[in-house]
Specification:
Radius of gyration: 18 Å
CATH superfamily of the largest domain: P-loop containing nucleotide triphosphate hydrolases
Number of strands: 5
Largest sheet: 5 strands, parallel
Strand content: 5-15%
Shape: globular
Strand order of the largest sheet: 2-3-1-4-5
CATH architecture of the largest domain: 3-Layer(aba) Sandwich
Length: 201
Amino acid sequence: MSKLVIGLTGGIGSGKTTVADIFAEYGIDIIDADLVAREAVEPGTPALVKIAEHFGPDFILADGHLDRSKLRHRVFANEADKTWLNALLHPLIRNTMTEQCSLAKSPYCFLVAPLLIENGINNTVDKVLVVDVKPETQITRTVNRDNNTAEQAQKILEAQISRDERLAHANYVINNDDCSIDELKEQIELLHREFLKLVVG
């Protein structure tokens, strides 16, 4: 089991996945909340059956998978549906992530969660690392990556906690705004050494 569990988070388009992938190159175990969430609603899972019962069969694709886009639009527009879905999935996801953290073999491990702070997961980890970029950068990257309009990207940003609030919870910050991949790797190498020191200490 890892001696140190670090929560890794950042707003949409901040580069969390890139940062996690670089840490993984050092042999660090990564527990990804998005991946766990996807596995929780795979075809045949109890959670997917409950979702189909609640929202209707047209939320399931022909191949048996969840129609994520349709569900996202539904819960984004309906607070009661969002609350119901969160009550179903969050305990499942949290339990699975806790189990995966306990099985991690690297000296320290990461729990990557976009809503780490919003969902209170930051209270279950030892340290919090925030990948930080300016809101303008987030919007540009989200538009380019996900084919969203600037207006859609802005709405997603507004649904997340503010940059200041996220940074207020950070023990460590990676600036991923105007830096090259080499500059990003330099920041990560320094943090990797720092985390190893914490584990040894």
